[in-house]
Write a structure and sequence with these properties.
Helix content is 47%, strand content 18%. The protein is an alpha/beta fold. Bound molecules: S-adenosylmethionine.
Length: 256
């Protein structure tokens, strides 16, 4: 069912990705902690602080793409509400995988936003957000999602389309470790330990093997910055911020 809207060529990758995240949905948060030694939480906190969403005089309309279990969305709402006194700011958590969104919904019931009109859920492919009007969104976030998209340029063009002029694209994703010695250590960890931890904790080596390979294949900092610019965004400053030696990076773009 998930693969129906995808053309033949992209279909097999799409079904694979859908399967991976269905397999890991229930154990996803635990696995993130194991794989990153808990560091993903610090990266996510920093990501949201760096965006600084919401303002007292204007409610932000936010869209968290590949939002999965809601890790970024709840942080964005908390920040907008508690730090920037913006209690009317809203967020849509969107993901291609209903199982991941179902986990997100379940988790939302334990937050201040349980059944709140400020939070809604949308099953959608990031490459085709046809239910979201053009020029309607203040902030588009995607964390650890875009490397899984089949057509990343198409997803970036959709991000551009849905954002208002002046709207912000913000992406948190695995990237390239610049120091060669640290990179060798990191590769040992990711290719050696992560599939093994996947096997032991989630009983699923193949899905975690896929995740490690998708990190390796994803464009590194400079190349991804160019992709964001090619979609039409203006990139502020250097264009990205490295986190933990470049294991992850934050990229931003503004729609002019
Ligand atoms: N953003 C969350 C976080 O940081 O914890 C979840 C990240 S999870 C590693 C990647 C998510 O991307 C999964 O929930 C998966 O279903 C979603 N995904 C993969 N391909 C997608 C696509 N084409 N469109 C939308 N979501 C997609």
């Amino acid at each position: 069912v998930l693969g129906q809207s995808i053309d033949q060529g992209a279909g097999s990758l799409f079904i694979l990705v859908a399967g991976v995240f269905s397999n890991v949905a229930a154990s996803y948060d635990t696995m993130n902690d194991f794989m990153s030694l808990g560091i993903h939480r610090l990266w996510k906190d920093h990501f949201v602080r760096s965006i600084n969403p919401g303002s007292p005089d204007q409610a932000w309309k936010m869209l968290d793409i590949a939002g999965g279990t809601g890790d970024i969305a709840f942080r964005l709402l908390d920040h907008a509400t508690n730090i920037n006194s913006s209690p009317a700011s809203t967020i849509t958590i969107s993901d291609i995988n209903p199982a991941m969104l179902a986990e997100g919904k379940k988790r939302s019931l334990e937050t201040a936003y349980a059944n709140s009109p400020r939070l809604d859920f949308l099953v959608a492919n990031a490459e085709n957000l046809h239910t979201i009007p053009s020029n309607s969104i203040d902030l588009y976030t995607v964390a650890f999602g875009i490397r899984n998209f089949t057509d990343k340029d198409k997803a970036l063009r959709e991000a551009y389309r849905v954002l208002k002029p002046g709207g912000v694209f913000a992406c948190l994703e695995f990237s390239g470790v610049t120091n060669p010695i640290l990179d060798a250590v990191y590769k040992q960890w990711s290719f050696g330990a992560i599939p093994m931890i996947g096997q032991l904790v989630a009983g699923d080596r193949a899905s975690y093997q896929y995740l490690v390979e998708s990190i390796e294949k994803f464009p590194k900092q400079e190349e991804f910055k160019s992709m964001i610019q090619n979609a039409g965004f203006v990139v502020p400053g250097k264009g990205w911020e490295d986190l933990t030696f470049g294991i992850a990076a934050i990229h931003k773009g503004i729609k002019p």
